[in-house]
Amino acid sequence: MRWTGKIRFLLLAPAVIWVLAFTVFPLGYSLYLAFYKIEQKVEIKREKEVILDADGKPVLDDNGQPRTKNVVIKEQVNIATFIGLDNFKRLFSDPQVAEAIRVTLLFVLIAVPVELALGFLLAVLFNQHIFGRPVLRTVMILPIFATPLAVGYTFFTIFYEVGGPLAWTGIPFLSNPNWALISVILVDVWQWTPFCFLVFLAALQGVPDELYEAARVDGASAMDMLREVMLPLLVPTIIIVLLLRMAEALKLFDIPFALTGGGPGVATQPFSLLAFRTGLRFFDLGYASAMAYALLIVVMIVVTLFFRRLRMNYD
Amino acid sequence: MHPLKWSLFALPALALLAAPASAGENVEWKDDGTVVLKLGEAYNNQTITVKQEDLGSEFGPDKQPFKDVTITLTVNGAGPKGGISGPLYQFRPIWEELTGGKVNIVELPFAEHYTKMMLDLRNGTGQYDAFMVGAFWYGDIVPAGYAYAIDEMQASGKYPKWTYDDMPPSLKALHQWKGVGYGVLNDGDGQVLYYRSDVLSNPEHQAAFKAEYGYDLPNPPQTWQQLLDIAKFFNGKNWDSTDADPDSGMVLHLKVGEQGHYHFQSLSSSFVINPGDKVTRTQNVYWFDPEDMKPLINSPGHVKALEFLQELHKTGPGAQVGWSLGEAWDYFLRGKSVFVFSWGDVGALCQDESRSKIKGKCAATVIPSSNEYYDFEKKEFVKLDTPRVIGNTVGGSWHGVISNFSANPEATYSFLSLMAMQPVSKLMATVGWDGVDPGFSYQFLEEDGGTAKIEDYVAAGWAENDAKTYTKAYHDTFYAPTSLTYLRIPGTFEYWDILDKNLSAAMSGSKTAQQALDDTAAAWEGVTDRIGRDKQKADYQAAIGYAP
Known about the structure:
The complex is a heterodimer of chains A (315) and B (548).
Chain A: H1 2-35, E1 36-50, E2 68-82, H2 86-93, H3 95-126, H4 133-141, H5 148-158, H6 177-205, H7 209-217, H8 222-250, H9 254-259, H10 271-280, H11 285-314
Helix pairs in contact in A: 1-11, 2-11, 3-6, 3-8, 6-8, 8-11, 10-11
Chain B: H1 3-18, E1 22-23, E2 27-29, E3 34-38, E4 47-51, E5 70-76, H2 85-99, E6 102-108, H3 110-123, E7 130-133, H4 138-141, H5 151-156, H6 169-175, E8 176-177, E9 180-181, E10 183-184, E11 192-196, H7 197-200, H8 203-213, H9 224-234, E12 248-251, H10 261-272, H11 300-313, H12 325-333, E13 337-342, H13 344-350, E14 362-365, E15 372-375, E16 380-383, E17 390-391, E18 399-402, H14 409-418, H15 422-430, H16 454-459, H17 464-478, E19 482-483, H18 492-507, H19 513-531, H20 533-544
Parallel strand pairs in B: 5-6, 5-7, 12-13, 17-19
Antiparallel strand pairs in B: 1-2, 2-3, 3-4, 7-18, 8-9, 10-18, 11-13, 11-14, 15-16
């Protein structure tokens, strides 16, 4: 029927409007900001307006005078000056950017492999018949459901160096630059290893038992089965998990924000936190937009490379 | 009707007849021309009596000048019994009863407050009528036209009365911009040195100190160098018998993104500021060269001060690199360190025995002086024969500023000025939890040139010696002939954030003092160029009173 097509578009409209308003427009506007310097000026006038009651008569005050309210009339002028690639050029000479990239890369290169390795080992363990497996499995995945900000604040109390539960170790978890970064990594590993574990476990449980039995008949040891049966079958899953975790880790924000505030100094300030501060603390919106686009480009390159690799596996 | 039933009607009627002119739950209008403001449990149900005429002509027993008006204020989130936000909650019911209006209090985390305020102002949404601001935000809000000038309302006599004349010039300057008033009196911020009077006056410690350092233990220390010796002497020893653990010499709050850089500001001022009767290119300057806006922050004086702070840090717990105010204050209040240099809250909190073990042993004095400073003209360090007092107003001096987009500036002003009235402000300064620190003439003792009496403080629960040294320390800090200039130019928040990060890097050992301050200077140049050097220069010259 003719109206079916119209209804289809009508039903799609909210989603389209949503995407346009909250994805496409911000993307476009932030790109515009990256190439322009915006100066704002505001002119304000005030007028008194008599307050009227339901019948349209003036409401009187204690002295019998009409009560008034202020009406603020504002005129905002935005002056946009095209500055070309200046904001992008700044990225290459800004020592804060270089430091934030170093912190982000260190974090990604350490945290993600550790999460994958631990997640895989736990998945292999939980793929066996062990006592209380359902309960343990449920407990294992609980960290995923915690809010990263809350996790950050919780670990702040755990890593508290005077009187905290780990104070006996004498480790300067939050006051030493190197240990502070390790602390951020530890918290991220705590929260996201269960995600890797869950996906790997699902993949492992999809491996047919016949393959293990055949390997066992051929005299394969546990290590042989891991190397020759499990790992090859899990490669696509590992790549997907690696891709997802890398994309997330590159955008690291919440945990250092709550746990260390990016410090000491800038020892735990990742790129996203720097972009946030530049834009919403110092209102250097053009430069912050350039930073955000730079990050987007890096994440897109990583994603594309991995998808290409994944496609090659399937081809 | 049963005879007893008469009493059911008669007793309330008699009670009403015997009642004062008008008695509400939070406000009582007396026939003698006074008004009693009834505070809640947080202030131990105390009452404040003010003159009716001091409340302003808009207020009266039968008046509700802001009936149905709702005002919204933002404040650093600390809760109904927390610093700066607490008094808003406590005075809200009083104002609502006085005016018929409503107050919305929006608490925002310290790290988010500036952002939320600027977003509201830049977009002109007018969601908030006022902000409890730090004075260092002025450079971003006043020149841009976002703040509402209050002089006219203050002079009108319609609203609760207070005056800028009660403020020392150093604090008054923070509430005005080019002579126009924007800020309503509330809090006076500046750092002083707190020390354990019992420990420094202990004869055994004094003898041991003399034996080790070869001079009498100064009580209190006059110079930073003396203070460092004392802090080193006590650090690691168990001089406080309340627990078995070793104690510290100094405790600092150095967490990045918070208020660690104020330690550096107040400490370094005497290493840097060149004395002089007026502000010149080399005298009484600290931040920038007022002729070209080149940063002075990496001058040899600043570097020496930072190296000194690094030394001082070693006399306290290593964890303090990650500590906010609360942790550092708590450490001092638990009797774990001899010194802390911080804001007025500490002195008041010392008196709160639920948090403090050191009531009566918590003395205060002005921030010590360095025994040398870097002469910008001679390009060399100059030794001082006698220590000097360099005042400071570091911190926010948190107070209300009305948004220019507010549709209810009068109502908002009346609420803020209710808390600025002399009897109210006087009471608030004696209480530790409310974050309102002293700084106004009626909070200083008569013997120091103020109008308060020591009995006022003792009645509020203070130990006499603590109160005497505390009020004198603040008086001398705010009225010092030479003072650290306050940075209030556009971008101050960013300049200070850069400084803060680099200081934190230096204090945690990832940069040397020279590196940290050189990096700060380089980044400041970028900010100045971006905002506009000439514009910044003009604002800076006006802010520090420099005439080219």
